[in-house]
Amino acid sequence: MTTIRDVAKLANVSVATVSRVINNNGYVNESTMQRVRQAIEQLNYRPNDVARSLFKGKSKMIALFVPDIMNPFFPELARAVEDISNKHGYTFILCNTDNQNDKEITYLNALLQKSIDGIILVSSTMTTSQVKDMKVPLIALDRKINPNLISVTVNNYEGARQAVQYLKKQGCKRIAHISGPENISNARERFRGYLDEVRDEEWFNSDFICVGNYAVNDAFEATKKLLQSNPEIDGIFVANDLMGVGVLKAAESLKIKIPNELSVIGFDGIELGNITSPSLTTMAQPIYNIGKRAAEILIQKIEHPNTVIKSEEHKVKLITREST
Amino acid sequence: MTTIRDVAKLANVSVATVSRVINNNGYVNESTMQRVRQAIEQLNYRPNDVARSLFKGKSKMIALFVPDIMNPFFPELARAVEDISNKHGYTFILCNTDNQNDKEITYLNALLQKSIDGIILVSSTMTTSQVKDMKVPLIALDRKINPNLISVTVNNYEGARQAVQYLKKQGCKRIAHISGPENISNARERFRGYLDEVRDEEWFNSDFICVGNYAVNDAFEATKKLLQSNPEIDGIFVANDLMGVGVLKAAESLKIKIPNELSVIGFDGIELGNITSPSLTTMAQPIYNIGKRAAEILIQKIEHPNTVIKSEEHKVKLITREST
DNA sequence: TTGTAGGCGTTATCAC
DNA sequence: GTGATAACGCCTACAA
User: Fold this and answer.
1) Is Transcription a UniProt keyword of this protein (chains A, B) (predicted)?
2) How far is it, in rounded angstroms, from Cα B136 to Cα B157?
């Protein structure tokens, strides 16, 4: 490996001068600069980032924690964060937490040892005490962790209300909800939105609510039971698209026609919903964009610790497809 | 930040001793070991990995290059690599290359500056000269780069033949192929498998072949044209599942019944194929497993540079679903 | 405008 | 068994 010393020797200057050229700060004569540049070129010298990190205490790396990259919601988020990291000269680290707090803590410690510069968390298991007093910048994405931790999310509550309103407008008279896990903030908000929209309807019945785990299979089973016990249901608001797929499959297996006999609306707007048949109407999140913003905000926090930064709540948008 | 020096001071020993305890090598008295352990505990000391990396010239980080994590084939690969990295104490870096060689080279250089320990490449654009004489271990995954670079792939050629044979067995008399990009090794092999299986059939017609780009939309358009000009086609072997979805959609839009009028078989075995209706018959790769093996081999190469390592070709497996 | 030297936190080599 | 100390490669006071 060629070091700054080799360059200095070849250019007949001190390492300090080479350093000045590399980082172009400090005074350096035009002609010596040329010499140094040439030596760098000639030796194909690249500064060692590890040494730099050691000196600066910063690594130019940021990490994203997601439950599981195999869940189709997360790749787009990851892509966005990686794009922005890359654009700003940061290296992107991906961690799958499986929603397990001990994994999160283990990753966190490992990354701190590596002088990670900042972390974006999609987490429903990190506790308030675990995130406060952290010396590295953190941002919550998709799920709020606590009110003091900056977050980038969408208007889950409003979006849920809009989804239910849309089903009503389509003529649904008995609207059910398949919710996400209660420990996930966005699932709670979507549930609350549903509830506020239906609780005063004379037809409302708490049997219309079931809890899913944001995965296809659970929703499939839940929907079968739901529709068999409550055949009067003519609309379902599903808390995410993945479960929406499960609902479509359940309806198919019960020979219930969509949208004629049952309307279904999901949440998220992942590409998958476009591929099912019938395709899935959904409240689409600006997925790429929230990932992008989280990364931008994080980098802002890293590079300008004093700027005031606020949480952001982005808007979801109705995308009507064949399931309604 | 608390350093090894702080621990040494508190335990009344030298940094050397602390280092011995941390890495448990060299002799150290049981009782002093206790003292040191306690001091570490008390100060909640964690060794600084950056300093370690600087000294060792290794970073305990490995990277995976994929074209685009948003393509549903790659998350499972990424998950596998991350799992294995993590298990062996490595940090996982993800890079999206968009199949662009300049991006690959930029990433490569950036990672070398960070003393990356090894890289797994899913690449169709890296050249032989770019990968040879690399000082860090490289492994090709999913796509071969050149015969000298260790690779973990599947038996694309044989799998393609099996796919076509299966269509024949289902009674197909005119079998078309939608291939992947010619610069991707696995696409070429799958194409060759198809060709060797059909070239001697009296019905064979080179119009039955079209080139796709491994994405849904292209295949959708290609299939429409293909089926309109050649209505006699009753079977399609599609080079990957993503394009398989495009084929299904095209058939639907042409009101062609699957599998009655047309049988479709894909390649890859991504979860998506299970969700379409009809669901997609496919030659499934052991996706997680090849990612896992690539990571294991890479780590082997990193930690035991002298062991002889060979390329691996894993087997694909027919999964019959509703499209045939 | 340039050079010297100390330090970032660890590890490993030598002495003792 | 244990302790000094010289690297690892870079950056930045401080001097000159």
Assistant:
1) yes
2) 30
CA distance B158 to chain A (A): 28
Cβ of B69 within 8 Å of Cβ of A51? The answer is no
Structure tokens at A151: 């977050």
Nearest to B114 among A50, A68, A276 (CB): A50
Asked if the B156-284 domain carries CATH number 3.40.50.720, the reply is no
- The second-level CATH assignment, the architecture, of B61-153+287-314 is 3-Layer(aba) Sandwich (3.40)
Cα separation of B95 and A48, whole Å?
20
**Strand A317-319 relative to strand A281-284, pairing:** antiparallel
> Is the CB of B92 less than 8 angstroms away from the CB of A91?
no
Run of H or E residues at A30: helix A30-43
Distance C14 C1' – B17 CA (angstroms): 15
> A4-47 with A156-284: one CATH topology?
no
Spatial distance from the CA of B17 to the C1' of D5 (Å): 14
Domain ranges for chain B, please list them. 4-47, 61-153+287-314, 156-284
| Closest nt by CA–C1' to B55 | D8
Distance CA A45, CA B112 (A): 12
Q: Please give the CATH architecture assigned to the domain spanning B4-47.
A: Orthogonal Bundle (1.10)
How many residue pairs bridge chain A and chain B with CB atoms within 8 Å of each other? Answer: 111
Q: What is the pTM assigned to this prediction?
A: 0.96
Beta bridge partners of A94: A64
Interface test with B, best of A3, A22, A49, A252 (most B CBs within 10 A): A49
User: Could you tell me the sign of the dihedral formed by the alpha carbons of B49, B50, B55, B56, in that order?
Assistant: positive
Q: How far apart are CA A295 and CA A293, in angstroms?
A: 5
- Chain B residues touching A94 at Cβ < 8 A: 78, 82, 92-94
pLDDT tens readout for residues B116-173 = 999 999 999 999 999 998 999 999 999 999 999 999 999 999 999 999 999 999 999 9
Segment-wise mean pLDDT, segments of 10 residues, chain A, 324 residues? 96 97 94 96 97 98 98 98 98 98 98 98 96 94 96 98 98 96 97 97 95 95 95 97 97 95 98 94 98 98 95 98 96
Beta bridge partners of A177: A209, A237
Question: How far is A64 from chain B, CA to nearest CA, in Å?
Answer: 10
Tell me the shortest Cα–Cα distance from B255 to chain A, in angstroms. 14
CB atoms within 10 A of CB B37: 15
Phi, psi dihedrals of residue B306, rounded to the nearest 5°: -95, -15
